[in-house]
Design goal:
This protein has helices spanning 6-29, 38-83. By secondary structure, the protein is mainly alpha-helical. Helix 1 packs antiparallel against helix 2. The relative contact order is 0.17.
Length: 84
């Protein structure tokens, strides 16, 4: 309905999938477990948690960008109908 360009949709879809794949990778490989090097693992785990949060936010932003762009395109289309 909003008639967004295919490049916008494709870019958002690829971005979303890439961010979700990064999130899953970081989630699976970010487990600490039990280790004698708990201090080092804790530091690495904190960095992985921040990266995982960034990946989640990136995926959410890619999805929400489509809503904003579609809303703007719809609003522009509505204003042209009202002026006619």
């Amino acid at each position: 309905m909003a008639r967004l360009p295919a490049t916008v949709l494709n870019t958002a879809a690829v971005s979303y999938l890439a961010f979700r794949a990064a999130f899953v990778y970081l989630y699976i490989n970010g487990e600490t477990g039990t280790s004698p090097l708990l201090v080092v693992i804790k530091l690495i785990s904190d960095g992985m948690a921040k990266a995982r949060t960034g990946a989640w936010l990136g995926a959410s932003a890619a999805c929400l960008t489509l809503f904003v762009k579609a809303g703007n395109a719809f609003r522009v289309g509505l204003s042209s109908i009202r002026q006619a």
